[in-house]
Write a structure and sequence with these properties.
- The structure holds two protein chains of two kinds.
- Chain A is mostly helical.
- Chain A has one domain: F1FO ATP Synthase (Up-down Bundle), CATH 1.20.20.
- In chain A, helix 2 packs antiparallel against helix 3.
- The two termini of chain A are 23 Å apart.
- The longest helix of chain B has 32 residues.
- The radius of gyration of chain B is 24 Å and the shape is flat.
- The two termini of chain B are 15 Å apart.
- The relative contact order of chain B is 0.10.
- The chains are: A mainly alpha, B mainly alpha.
- Chains A and B meet through helix 1, helix 2 and helix 3 of A and helix 14, helix 19, helix 20, helix 21 and helix 22 of B.
Chain lengths: 88, 452
């Protein structure tokens, strides 16, 4: 059994970190679903305002997406542009 | 650093008397099991609040609402008591120490992992506790306002709460099998510590997978509460309300059943030990497979949101039928469509879990000479990434429920409402897809091994 180098340890922990970062996706999923529900409700009550309702819903959903994208960016950095191994 | 921590860890574990390792694992398992107590606490508190509110609003029926609250709170207590019993078994009547009397240190590692897995499985009782408490609160509120419908309200609450308890019972079964009829110790007859590590990881993975049942517990309880409320307001629509609640509850059980199947596979089929044996064994491949087993279990937690979400949709659909019985078919169709979309996350989790267990690409990467530690951590990370699915599953369920609500009020708007619901649900799916992509990258196009 070969020894574990510091570089291997950093890369292994980066794999766990990349996976863990994605847990952030829980929030946008719940929030956007809630927005979708309220949007559907509003369209049912005021179908003539459908355009405005959907526009607002999508704008709000885009704002809610941000933290999910932050998580994705961190995961992608850890996987594809890992700065940590360079610090060793 | 030449010393290998896995080897050190195993040697350290095996330096104790085998009984000590099992008892230490049992202590951790007994503690984790009690996490289930969160559920009854939250749920009964909600029920108490609703009953207090009802007693204030309708003092003349306070006896009826108190009775409904106490009956419901009694059911909500179940998973807390089951967890207590499992903990006490591990503390006072530990069945595992007898198995280690032969003194096999590798078997002790399997049993310690099994005790932790049994505790993790019991922690899923959080869901049924919260769900049944919600149902109790809604029933108490309904009985206070419409005491003449007490029978129907209590019947719906009891039926729905019984369904919500199934996941608690699934968890109990898994725990008792691990404690009293552990199938893993038979597999680990050899004193190979690597194999023992895989089996212990499988037991922990089985326990993690069962946590998804918490979602179904909350979801079924929500549906039961809404059905009880609906029957209080509109006892003539009981049939339609009940059917909607049952369909919603069935949909929200799917992820709990997926998890049960994965837990049983990890305990009885143990596919990873065979992979280790056919690759010549050794601690390195065993570590990859151990963390793959834990990752496979963790991935199933992604189904938790689906359980809650489908229950929410079922409850809202039952409510819509109570208010407007003529919307029954439109609202049920919306509920089923919306809930099916909410199943996506549960299915993503199942796919990654099955890949980790039956088509693990990390094994061939190891055979090709890649670093074992990076591969092992990638297996764990690939599973953890799927926990993101909790959000889309829950959110899409909320969207489905809200769509049912408005279609119940205005069935003619069905087309527009469904279009908006599906568009919003598609947006809510994105973060789940991000998690899936990261998981697939870690498994099939791992850039980290190339950086070494």
């Amino acid at each position: 059994m070969e020894g574990i180098t510091g570089r291997a340890l950093i890369l292994a922990c980066s794999a766990i970190g990349a996976g863990t970062a994605m847990i952030a996706g829980i929030g946008p999923g719940i929030g956007q679903g809630f927005a979708a529900g309220k949007g559907a409700e509003a369209v049912g009550k005021q179908p003539e305002a459908q355009g405005d309702i959907i526009k607002t819903m999508l704008l709000g959903a885009a704002v809610a997406e941000t933290t999910g994208i932050y998580g994705l960016v961190v995961a992608l950095i850890l996987l594809f542009a890992n700065p940590l191994v360079g610090l060793l | 650093m030449a010393a290998n921590f896995i080897e050190m860890f195993i040697n350290w574990l095996m330096s104790f008397e085998p009984q000590a390792v099992v008892l230490a694992g049992s202590a951790i398992g007994a503690g984790i099991s009690m996490i289930a107590g969160i559920g009854p606490g939250v749920g009964q508190g909600y029920a108490a609040g609703k009953a207090a509110e009802a007693a204030g609003a309708h003092p003349e029926t306070s006896k009826d609402s108190l009775l409904a609250m106490l009956v419901g709170a009694g059911i909500a207590e179940t998973t807390g008591i089951l967890s207590l019993v499992v903990s006490l078994i591990f503390i006072f009547g530990n069945p595992m120490v007898k198995l280690t009397e032969a003194g096999d240190p590798a078997q002790a590692i399997v049993l310690a992992g099994s005790a932790i897995g049994a505790g993790l499985a019991m922690s899923a009782g959080v869901g049924a506790g919260i769900g049944c408490g919600y149902a109790a609160g809604k029933a108490s509120e309904g009985v206070a306002a419409y005491p003449e419908n007490q029978r129907g309200v209590l019947m719906n609450m009891l039926l729905g709460s019984a369904i919500a308890q199934t996941t608690g019972i699934f968890s109990l079964v898994i725990s008792l099998i691990l404690a009293f009829a552990n199938p893993l110790v038979k597999v680990s007859t050899s004193t190979d510590p690597g194999m023992a590590l895989i089996l212990a990881g499988g037991a922990i993975g089985a326990g993690l997978a069962m946590i998804a049942g918490a979602g179904s517990g909350v979801g079924c309880g929500y549906a039961a509460g809404k059905a009880a409320e609906g029957v209080a307001i509109a006892p003539d629509n009981q049939r339609g309300i009940l059917v909607n609640m049952l369909v919603g509850s069935a949909l929200c059980q799917t992820t709990a059943i997926f998890s049960l199947v994965i837990a049983l596979i990890l305990m009885f089929a143990t596919p990873l030990t065979g992979i280790a044996a056919s690759n010549g064994g050794g601690l390195e491949i065993c570590l990859i497979l151990t963390l793959s087993a834990i990752g496979a279990g963790a991935s199933m937690i992604g189904g938790t949101g689906t359980g809650v979400g489908c229950g929410y949709a079922g409850g809202k659909s039952a409510e819509a039928v109570a208010i407007n019985p003529s919307s029954n078919s439109a609202s049920m169709m919306t509920m089923i469509l919306g809930s099916s979309i909410s199943q996506t996350s549960g299915i993503f989790s199942l796919v990654i879990t099955l890949i980790l267990l039956y088509a693990n690409p990390l094994v061939s990467l190891y055979a090709a000479g890649e670093n074992f530690l990076i591969l092992a951590a990638s297996g764990l990370g690939a599973g953890l990434a799927l926990i993101a699915g909790v959000g889309p599953g829950l959110g899409q369920g909320i969207a489905a429920g809200k769509a049912c609500e408005v279609i119940g009020l205005r069935p003619k708007m069905q087309g527009n409402v469904l279009r908006t619901m599906i568009l919003g649900q598609a947006v809510a799916q994105t973060t789940g897809i991000y998690g899936l992509v990261i998981s697939l990258v870690l498994l099939f196009a791992n850039p980290l091994v190339g950086l070494l």
